[in-house]
Write a structure and sequence with these properties.
4-stranded antiparallel sheet; about 260 residues; globular; alpha+beta; 9 helices
């Protein structure tokens, strides 16, 4: 698909797919505890060994989980967007973060404080199950990132991150600089610039002034490593499982009625 830089890129309505997968009755019980807020680019939600002070369900923002190194570099271990959540482990007693959660693409989210989630989980067992399943998918994402960083070349890794960012953001236009991409990949900016130019010459992306437009996701998928499809499949399985549970709960409610 070709998208002109002069025209708005295709964007889906901001929705958190994880919350949308909850049965209506459970969603009605939990949603009033959430508030809508805007996340700014570069905003740090919590830091390594810092307290987890809130829980976030991105609508179209993309949050990067990174590990800062002593030399000043950071390495991304996972990205979270509209099919996930940030801070879910507080529901099971976690108080401090093991990574830095920083907003890579600004946007909206639904959020709540720790007490609100803890209380909701205590009263809504299905919400507890959803968070456990999500954290398993997130752990698999982190594991794939470790394997990917160790074995796959930069071209494949850059293609994977661009595709994943589109999935998480819900639009073909990404407000990302080449410097940010280099940070995400743990690579030199000059190297990322050369690869991005190669992608642009091949018609996969268009890049200008900190904006990346995905022009041909099919070509990008051909370049991306297997980790993109593996991580995406894990989250799709999570949402399918939640949808199945949703149908069962609603059918049970109708039977009781």
């Amino acid at each position: 698909m070709h998208t002109s830089l002069n025209n708005p890129a295709r964007m889906v309505a901001p929705t958190n797919l994880l919350l949308a997968s909850l049965p209506n009755s459970l969603a009605h019980a939990f949603m009033p505890r959430l508030k809508r807020e805007v996340l700014r680019q570069h905003q740090v939600l919590f830091d390594v060994r810092g307290p987890i002070t809130g829980v976030y369900f991105p609508l179209n923002a993309v949050i990067s989980l990174v590990i800062p190194l002593s030399n000043g570099q950071t390495v991304e271990t996972a990205m979270v967007g509209r099919d996930g959540m940030i801070g879910g482990l507080v529901a099971f007693g976690a108080k401090h973060s093991t990574s830095r959660a920083v907003v890579k693409i600004a946007g909206e989210c639904l959020s709540c404080n720790v007490e609100a989630l803890t209380s909701a989980v205590a009263h809504i067992p299905e919400l507890r199950s959803m968070i456990i399943s999500h954290e398993q998918a997130l752990l698999a994402h982190v594991q794939h990132s470790a394997a990917c960083n160790a074995t796959h070349n930069l071209e494949s890794r850059l293609a994977r991150r661009l595709l994943r960012a589109v999935d998480l953001h819900g639009g073909q236009e990404l407000l990302l600089t080449q410097e940010q991409l280099a940070e995400m990949l743990g690579a030199r900016r000059t190297t990322v610039t050369l690869i991005a130019q190669k992608f642009q010459d091949a018609g996969m992306i268009r890049y200008r002034r900190g904006r990346i437009i995905i022009c041909d996701s099919g070509k990008l998928q051909n370049v991306a490593c297997e980790c993109y499809r593996a991580v995406k499949s894990n989250y799709e399985a999570l949402l399918r499982g939640q949808s199945k549970d949703r149908v069962q709960v609603e059918e049970s409610a109708e039977a009781v009625y």
